[in-house]
Amino acid sequence: MIKYPMTVQGAKALEEEHTFLSKVERPRLSQAIGEARELGDLKENAEYHAAREEQGMVEARIRDIEGRMQNAVVIDVTTIAHTGKVIFGTTVDLENTETGDQVTYQIVGEDEADIKKGKLSANAPIARAIIGKEEGDTVVIKTPSGTVEYEIVEVKHI
């Protein structure tokens, strides 16, 4: 059985999505299917088929969320002692040693990853390169445009 590491925020977001799909979308689609059925011949009823297809996707997503939540390992990084080491859930400030540019990433589970929000999947190459390292360490990361060297400036448990 696969376990999914997840931050507290990620677990909360999945629970909210599950609630929305179960309590809002499911009843809305059920009603839409009922209304489309009343329109007559189901073979040529586009509204009925579209609603059924959407219902299938919503039900599949609900099952997926339930499976992930059942197999989630929720990690609250704020309860873990700060050692300066990069671990799952920490927020890390990195500085490009060549350009001085700084970036900040939080190491999160796959479902939570969103590079635009600075949330990096623990399976991403950058995350894999920095997990286990400490503040002050330098890491070399292979990118499509070549190798980049970063210094781990700060590790935060927020």
Automatic annotation (TrEMBL):
Keywords linked to the UniProt accession: DNA-binding, Elongation factor, Protein biosynthesis, Transcription, Transcription regulation
Stretches assigned to the Transcription elongation factor GreA/GreB C-terminal domain: 83-156
Can you provide one Gene Ontology molecular function annotated for this UniProt record? DNA binding
Under PROSITE patterns, the record lists: GREAB_1 (PS00829)
Q: Name one Pfam family in it.
A: GreA_GreB
The answer to whether UniProt assigns keyword Secreted to this entry is no
Q: Please provide the Gene Ontology terms (biological process) for this protein.
A: DNA-templated transcription elongation; regulation of DNA-templated transcription elongation
User: Record's InterPro entries?
Assistant: TF_GreA/GreB_CS, Tscrpt_elong_fac_GreA, Tscrpt_elong_fac_GreA/B, Tscrpt_elong_fac_GreA/B_C, Tscrpt_elong_fac_GreA/B_fam, Tscrpt_elong_fac_GreA/B_N
- Residue limits of the Transcription elongation factor GreA/GreB N-terminal domain? 5-74
- Family note: Belongs to the GreA/GreB family.
Xref: HAMAP family: GreA_GreB
Q: What does this protein do?
A: Necessary for efficient RNA polymerase transcription elongation past template-encoded arresting sites. The arresting sites in DNA have the property of trapping a certain fraction of elongating RNA polymerases that pass through, resulting in locked ternary complexes. Cleavage of the nascent transcript by cleavage factors such as GreA or GreB allows the resumption of elongation from the new 3'terminus. GreA releases sequences of 2 to 3 nucleotides.
The protein in question is named: Transcription elongation factor GreA
Record the organism: Pseudomonas koreensis
